[in-house]
Fold this sequence. Notes:
By secondary structure, this protein is mainly α. It has 15 helices and no strands.
Amino acid sequence: MLTAVTLGMLTVFGPLSMDLYLPVLPSLASDLASTASAAQLTMTACLVGLAAGQVIAGPLSDRYGRRRPVLSGLLVYTLASALCAVSVSMEMLIGMRLAQGLAGGVGLVVAQTVGRDLYEGARLTRYYARIVVISGLAAIVAPVLGGFLADVVSWRGFFVILTGVGVVATLVVLFWLPETLAHDARVSGGLRRTASQLAILARDRLYVGATVSSSLTAAAYFVYLAGAPFVLQEMHGLSPSSYALVFGVNAAAFAAAGFGAGRATERWGDRAVYVVGLAVLVLAGGVLLACALWVDALAPTVVAFVLVAAGAAIVSPPATTLALVGYPHFAGTASSILGMSRFAAGAAAAPLAGILGPTTMLPLATTVLVAAVLASAVYRIWLAERRATAQALDPEGAT
């Protein structure tokens, strides 16, 4: 139980680092005598770090075990957060946000790889469902919590809070997270070995299909997160408290769908649950497009947002299981590429939500629908029937 709680905690670093301080971005720019666009770069730097950090941490966790990389990452995260709090220039803050993201990415990888070390089959999917629920709730709750904190805490205070989170997480991992990768299961060989593993993954239809398809669903989810505040507050005039209530409903839907996906795979299997999640996302995109073109009403828009959150939560657990199931001997590398792809897709899609300004949700609706349809097409081509056997075993042998 303590291990599960610890791993769940590691998944919230990304959402907390990205979303908690959103309400104080304007005051941050003013205090550092900088611009709004420069303040936005602090978000971009963290997101880039979270993606790149996973690629670095994955192979390291396969070589040195799970504890050493995650403890190192947490120490760097804590130090970077503290330096963010005392930054004297925007350039310094952007650099420390990049370091914060790089270190935070370690926790995301380790949370996935430890699950692969410990579980198999339906238990593995159920574990990933719990991780999805925790991280998804954090992504939705963080900006709402930040809105309340912004009344009493400056932007520097937000980074003090993140420093405290880093300290607590470091102590929890130090005392309660066991090493789950045996010494004889660790790999060696440096960059050549990593390149060999990447080549194996690239030739596996199941891994590539699950990675591409779930990354497209992540794109739909991130563009929803980026665009929903403008749609609900600017277009439909919701107050901050009403906006928080709607996001609370979405958080509940995300949690229920993610938990339900983990349970449903025990009865119907990963692929069946995957298809249900894709169908929910396609439906959500269709409803959003109808609202953007013909029915400018709040109720169906909120329903569509709930469906986006639920669909993304349903897809992620079986997709993660399908991607990692064949790679117990280098789960860190496989997990890191999967995580990086999802964050990269989200980073690319999020700006599309406001590409035509804050008074239309047509770009948001179109992006969600296109991403969901493409994810379904990838599933149909690469995942519906596994026509090629994954090269799950390294022909050189894990050493």
